[in-house]
Give the backbone structure.
Amino acid sequence: MGVSRRDFLKGSGAAAVGLALSDKPASATDKIPGLRTKGSTTTTSVCPYCAVGCGMLVQSRNGKVINIEGDPEHPINQGSLCSKGSALFQVANNERRLTKVQYRAPGSTKWEEKSWDWTMKRIAMLMKESRDRNFVKTEKIDGKEYTVNRNEGMAMIGAAALDNEECYLLGKFARAMGVGYLEHQARI
Ligand code: SF4
């Protein structure tokens, strides 16, 4: 059955009167679902991607990150995040994320799971071997010998997410190893 314009106006008028006379007016919040972050723990953090260093609020429940958003009280970003920072949640919760060290021996086609203890020792051993093999103590320029203490077999690179103190320590460490090829991600 069709509804005429007159019937429609009559019906809406009756509904409006019904609403006005009802003792429980509809509330604007009746249909709003509960916050998904309700009952979670909020921790402040800093985006690890670039040197802007945007502040973030990380909400977690039972040790699991359930939401990440910009921190409105942070002086740098005041709540905003770029597309990379906004997608950081997918780094914390991603079934494809590796959480254990994977090692493939020279010539092997298989990956093996290794402990961090094993891995750190192996990295340290290889760095020492490489430094000793490539260390240049002196260099002759125009017939005169200069002490250079240069490690020509190694380069180091810092990432933009490193803070001042980490950059300072990495710089000191690189120079202690004789590394001259010291660069930064943002300059490449
Ligand atoms: S949110 Fe974007 S701009 Fe801010 S620190 Fe992260 S990557 Fe840099």
In short: The longest strand covers residues 144-158.
